Please model this.
Amino acid sequence: MIGSGVDSRTELSHLIRARYPIIYIQSGEEERVEHAVRDIQRTRAERGHERKLLFWSITQGFTGDQEFSDLRDPIKALDFILRYEDAGLFVLRDFHPYLKDPVVVRRMRDCYRQIQDGERPKTLLLVSPALRIPTELEAEVAVVDFSLPGRGELASLIAEFARMYELDHDADARERFTEAALGLTYDEAKLVLAKSLIRHRDFNISTILSEKKAIIRKSGLLEYYESQEEFGGVGGLEVLKEWLVKRQGAFTQRARDFGLPVPKGILLIGIPGCGKSLTAKAVGALWQMPLLRLDVGKVFSGLVGSSEENIRKVISTAEAVAPAVLWLDELEKGFSGVQSSGQSDAGTTARVFGSFITWLQEKTSPVFVIATANDVSMMPPELLRKGRFDEIFFVDMPTEAERREIYRIHLEKKGRDINSFDLDRLARESRGFSGAEVEQAVVGALYDAFFEGEELTTDRVLRASAEVIPLSLTMKEKIDDLRDWAESRARSASGLPIGAAREDEPVDPDEAEDAERKKAVPAGFRNLELGD
Model:
């Protein structure tokens, strides 16, 4: 897509000046795009390059410098542009539905050739929230993804509101208001600021953030988190936590001046319930950045072209909100079909995946990606190449010492005095438990104690934990395979050798009995074939 590394208005101006015949501007902000086109027209006219500016819609025909209300049919509109004798900019609103018509497509190609060969500069500007370019036009159409308003634009809007309503704010307050509005369209920001003024007679950060959460959630793609998780609430994973703490200030200008690159992100692979998601939530709080959660499966929809459009929306929103943390939960489920995409979905998954990893590799915006995955066998190998992520961490089952820390965290969260509990015994007798299973044991014991009108005790937690069947038993083979894969491909999140928790995990009774039987048989007699 044209325009990476250059702001949308500048890119659009360059394409118009370079006399590109057809430009497709993807944006839902019609008014803002048209305002930018008017600015470009005015600037070019002041320098002696005057063009007429006309706007077309199916309801009004042509309006602007000249009006032709009878030209509402798209074919007639294109014919008019072909016959138009002056230099012109022609903004075609919501034109994408008509690109399904082969006659319209053919006429667009005619326009391209005649404009390219003509003496007077003309440019067709297709403005639409959806990107729908037929194969026949892909070579002829330049695409500009009109980005959401940046800090400068929003700061100007806030200053204008403040001037109109005689509000007085210092520079720090204006910066906080601007930061809170990042990720909204220009119109959304105007409405949110207006609501804040009606409700509080001033701008209010909580109101702006609350509205922003609702707007981002409305897309159905992203969830906006204001994480309440404390980093100290993550038990174990000491190497991973130290790595993240060291990069806490890496998004500042001081870090750029020092020569540090903007951190790209990390991939957390490991066993379910062992702290991957908890870590993602805690990073947002540690770095004091907004946390956007993406369920990759939601990117894919039934409409042709919608999935590609969805991933562009996600990237655009994340970059507008930046600096931010983008959390991709269970990444493997969304991209598991990449290898067979050509046969199963006409290549949609492969194209979306390609867009994502290209952005991941080349992005310069301060968006830190935390991707989590449970099943490495479903992961496309391209994701694991060097340069995609800064580091790949393996999150293993907690050891006895780590379980002790996790019990302490959960008991303190429930308002209990940890000195009243035998943490060593709890950790020792929950062999093979994940962090989530430790929490489950504490919560289960709390329910029992509440029901019986008694206080929570070590024995009660132990009774509750005895009812938990840990994943280390039910998924033993899968966990062992995951550890075998990670030993040579990932860094241990805890700093302990990968698989260190194996020695601490329960053994299936049948397997233990079989192992003892084998030990009892002399080595030379173990492989006798005694069958018929």
The radius of gyration is 30 Å.
